[in-house]
Specification:
binds zinc ion; two-stranded antiparallel sheet; disordered N terminus; 9 helices; 2 domains; elongated; four-stranded antiparallel beta sheet; TATA-Binding Protein; alpha+beta
Length: about 280
């Protein structure tokens, strides 16, 4: 910032998001000022009507409302963020007083644009958490499967349909659980994971629902670990309510992990059992 090249550009040193936020702030001030233009008409309007019991009340409302509007404008004006916009404008203008480019800029809609920009940032951040391993290469897939079979030699795994389908089968307590994972590839290289606990009765249906509501939808390693947790965390009571059976006499059909700090200081993942109704 501050180099001769940077100073020659309008908005120098500010990225698009900062400029949009600043314009949104100015638009908000403009709206407050526009609203205050109506202060006098609002105050005197009650006197244009025949006198009635409401006259004084409406007059008082007009005065107080306008005072509040003025105070809000003052406080917004004095805010550090607003002042730094003015400061930036001054600097930018003294570096380059040619405002012809600004003609092409819309004068309204900045509050809306700033809101959308904030939402899309939030969404992108959400996606990046969601899509760990979202572009799953064949090598990566083979690696995840190899690591998993090594960690869980007692879980039977079958890979089918050119690695588009994974079948995991094991005994959990006295029931055999079978899970099928389907990997749906999309044209952009991303993938979606569909998982199902095979069976047309409970608890299999509940298990399918609980797996489907997993937080990291497209993380294959996380999904396989969750499936394995139906063997390793078996027959225990619910981590939320502490009971073995819930009100519908169902055992905990969900598995969720949590990070715990182990003695070495490194975070360790453990899996816990939950009733379907005890999931957040
Ligand atoms: Zn519970």
């Amino acid at each position: 910032m501050g180099g001769p090249d940077a100073a020659a550009q309008p908005g120098a040193g500010w990225d698009e998001a900062q400029c949009t936020a600043a314009l949104a702030r100015l638009e908000e001030l403009q709206a407050q000022i526009d609203n205050l233009r109506l202060a006098i008409p609002r105050i005197i309007e009650p006197f244009h009507r025949p006198p009635n019991p409401m006259t004084y009340k409406l007059y008082a409302q007009g005065v107080i409302g306008s005072q509040k509007g003025l105070e809000a404008l003052k406080s917004q004006w004095m805010q550090h963020e607003t002042q730094s916009v003015f400061e930036h404008v001054k600097k930018s203008f003294s570096a380059d007083a040619n405002l012809s480019e600004s003609v092409t800029m819309p004068s309204h809609g900045w509050r809306e644009r700033a809101r959308k920009a904030r939402e899309s940032i939030k969404k992108t951040e959400g996606d990046s958490v969601e899509d760990i391993g979202a572009t799953l290469t064949d090598e990566h897939l083979s690696q995840i499967i190899a690591d998993f079979s090594q960690t869980h030699p007692n879980l039977k795994m079958e890979i089918r349909d050119d690695k588009r389908s994974i079948l995991v089968r094991f005994l959990s307590g006295c029931v055999t659980l079978k899970f099928r994972i389907r990997i749906e590839r999309e044209a952009n290289g991303r993938h979606k994971l569909n998982a199902q606990c095979l069976g047309t009765t409970e608890p299999f249906l509940a298990i399918t629902r609980c797996v489907a509501s997993r937080p990291h939808t497209n993380d294959l390693k996380d999904l396989l670990d969750m499936i394995a947790a139906y063997k390793t965390v078996e027959g225990t009571s619910c981590a939320k309510c502490g009971k073995l059976l819930d009100n519908s006499a169902m055992t905990p059909t969900a598995r969720r992990n949590k990070q715990i700090d182990s003695t070495g200081g490194a975070a360790k993942t453990t899996w816990e059992a939950f009733h379907e109704d005890c999931l957040e």
